[in-house]
Amino acid sequence: MRIAVVPCSLCHAAALQAPQTPTPRRPTATSATSSATSDDWDAVVIGSGIGGLSCAAILANAGKKVLVCEAHDRAGGVAHDYEVQGFTFENGPSLYAGLSPNASPNPLKHVFQIIGEEPEWLTYDRWGTAFPEGTFAAAVGAKDFKERILPTYAGPGAADQFDTLMKRVEPLGEAIFGVPSAAVREDAFAALTLGRYGLSLATLLAVGPAPALSRPFSEVLDQCGVTDAFLRNWLDMICFLLQGATTKEAPTTLMAYMLSDFYCDGVVLDFPKGGTKSIIDALVRGVRKNGELRLNAPVAKVLMEDGATTGVELASGEIIRAPIVVSNADLWTTRKLLPDHPKLINYFEKQAARVTRCDSFLHLHVGIDATGLPTTPSEALPAQWAALEDWGRGVDAPRNLVLVSMASMLDSSLAPEGCHVVHAYVPATEPFEDWERFIEEGGYQSSKYREAKDEAVEVLWRAIERYVPDVRERIKVALPATPLTHRRFNRRDAGTYGPFLPATSGQLMGHSTPLDGFYVCGDSTFPGIGVPAVAASGMITAHSILDVQTHWANLDKLRIR
Q1: CB-count exposure of residue 451 (10 Å: 0-12, 13-18, 19+)
Q2: Longest dimension (CA), the chain
Q3: Residues 6+ apart with CB under 8 A from 94
Q4: Which is nearest to 117 in space by CA: 281, 334, 260, 308?
Q5: pLDDT, mean of each 10-residue run, the chain (561 residues)
Q6: Distance (Å, rounded) from C-alpha 23 to C-alpha 191?
Q7: Is the dihedral of CA 185, 186, 187, 191 positive or negative?
Q8: 3-state helix/strand/coil string of 319-355
Q9: Secondary structure E strands in 276-400
């Protein structure tokens, strides 16, 4: 498998969809031999999420003096981890793919190839499901799905419908693979870098004209005669987990990319040895080649003089000078940092008006006694599974769909000997508004809040129990979390996962802005939410800053197939 999967997300075929960006301005790239002093930087990046670190690492690899300012006490943004009583808990992404192969269209893989840093990858071949129809672990690839899963749980003809669908999307997906998001830049030189992949672009347009690519994937299902209820529910679930949208809202490019990759021969699932922290550590190593990561350094505002950014001011009052500033914060948080620049404010307000915030999360981190449980993934106990209570409510209904990860099945170092670590969460379906009142009603330590939290995470316990029925008898550590927790520790506005923009509604904002030298990346920007997408956003931003020659040299490092 070539994609990296996280709740609600997948990278679109970035090069094929035009991001929303203001009119290009003068080039803002600085020379690799810049005369930066010890007090000045070539660029400051706000936030150390995967998007911000990807951008900073690529800039540093090109010789830029880069400072990353992170408000938290650790790097990673939503993808950070933490340790309690010897258990390492993953705060964000838990399911990855497309990162272990040497050749892959995955944007995060391309970042690693550009900066020359990468974690060690562990691989496995199946993930579990706990549906009303039954509990099973499906192997990745088409064979098990067609020969075992569909005949058992779907109706007659479902396998034929799936074959028809795949014949439609596979050539489209293959064409998409050939156009890396790393080739995209947002200036007059974009044609030079994208033109390098002209044959793949031509092939893509031949198999799927541009207007059709942006249409909801449900239209493709209808055209291919996909009527089986189980198959359509399955595709809805996959789509929602990757993008935070059902097939009625997600664009065709998204699902063509995913399906043609997920169901090809030889695919595997990946996990970074040492957990997600290993991904963050690799990116930080890239930054430190010519830059610095500063923790506990929240940015208070972006500075401006004469219509151009001049740096940032930290909450401490410290002024950091730089001709380029990149914000990896979400759209709404970035808006609060902006200087009084009418065109800039208007631009961000228009962007905010175009999108809807994805809902937030419920999390449950559990450390358990593993006595009698398998130590490696199997049909009986997979390392990852999805649990859904009621198809009729919809995969996007609050507290209906849960994802569970038992990462210690893949890497035993994440839990004490004889134990497992478990992470269960709802994929961005928990409304923040339902929790906001507790801020005024006694705060995080109030008995009402604790009771509401315990009641809410009951659905997470039930999801874990689908594979580990006696999990509550095995508890050593149990840490529930709500949207308030997500906002507090991940500094996400309203605890959101990011913005949502359905198919046919245009694209998310681009990476340059009306303020000269000020850029944005991360999940609020094109191509959207999720690990591959935010890595792509960081690459696009970095390459929009760097000169074409450096950009072209970076493309030489990619191994796409």
Answers
A1: exposed
A2: 70
A3: 6, 7, 276, 384, 403, 405, 407, 423
A4: 281
A5: 34 40 39 44 97 98 98 91 94 86 93 98 94 92 93 96 93 84 92 86 69 82 96 93 84 84 87 96 97 97 95 97 97 94 93 90 96 94 96 95 96 97 94 88 82 95 97 97 87 83 80 96 91 95 97 95 70
A6: 16
A7: positive
A8: EEECCCEEECCCHHHHHHHCCCCHHHHHHHHHHHHHC
A9: 291-294, 299-305, 308-314, 319-321, 325-327, 356-357, 363-369, 384-388
Q: What is the pLDDT of residue 210?
A: 59
What CA–CA distance (Å, rounded) separates 454 from 27? 53
Q: What's the rounded Cα separation, in Å, for the pair 139 and 127?
A: 7
pTM: predicted TM-score of the whole model, two decimal places: 0.91
How far, in Å, CA of 167 to CA of 538, rounded? 33
Please give the backbone phi and psi of residue 106, each rounded to the nearest 5 degrees, phi first: -65, 125
368 forms bridges with which residues in the sheet? 420, 475
Radius of gyration of the chain (CA): 23
Q: Residue 440, class by beta-carbon neighbours within 10 Å (0-12 exposed, 13-18 middle, 19+ buried)? A: exposed
Tokens of 169: 């999307």
Query: Hey, is 75 helix, strand or coil?
Result: coil
CA nearest to 63, candidates 517, 533, 553: 553
Q: Tokens 């359509």 appear where?
A: 232
Residue recorded with tokens 């316990």: 461
Provide φ and ψ at 496, rounded to 5°: -75, 155
The answer to whether the beta carbons of residues 137 and 146 sit under 8 Å apart is: no
- CA gap 127, 394 in Å, rounded: 21
Cβ proximity of 3 and 258 under 8 Å = yes
